[in-house]
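Dear support,

I submitted the protein below through the web form. The confirmation email said the job was done, but the results page showed an empty box. After a refresh the structure appeared. I'm attaching both so you can tell me whether what I see now is the final result or a partial one.
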Amino acid sequence: MLKTRHMRSAALAAGALALTLPAAADYHSKRGYDGYGGRGHGEGIVLHADADFSGESIRLNGAEPDLSRFRFNDRVSSISLRSGAWEVCTDANFRGRCEVIDGNVARLNEYRLNDNISSVRPVSRRGDWRGHPGDREDWQGGRGARGGLVLFADSELRGPSIEIGEDVPDLNAYRFNDKASSFLVTRGTWQVCEHANYRGRCEIISGGEGDLKPIRMNDNISSVRRFHGRW
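What the results page shows now:
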């Protein structure tokens, strides 16, 4: 009878432990590729504790605002992706400096994010962030063809960027409010406004590229929408 009671208590304890583990992640402690980088199976993003996709790893299929609950805060040194693009941030709740990863990264030093990631989330399909400096040839070569308008944080089409393909009433949703300094129009005509919901002073930009200083909109755009020749 004592043995049966002990086994039942052990089973209940194991069940309670299982409930405390986050259900949205898989853990792997063995060294090496862990079966996820490059040719591995699964979906989402895999965070590796060491460079070159080695060390302990965790796979996530959705947004995670605080990696501390996985004991993986400020521990990521490489990333392998199984689907989509992901935003990674230095602070919890997607705050601090954020970058977008759209491919496998063997060493996060190139992003200055080694052991410095606290939250991650998939990139919304409505926008397409670029963590590396923007480049005119990249966008005109086809990477930005599906959107219509690309806003860059720095002049001369450089710095982090966002690709826009539909009306955006508030760029705060993409952490790009009052950040744009240059633009590239790949399709259509666009209205850019200094306040959310298309309020304040607005300007029209169409085919081509340029800096926003000449139209006094540098670091001063909060909403964007397609222009159809009226309003």
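Response: this is the final, complete result; the empty box was a page-load delay. The first helix runs from residue 2 to 20.
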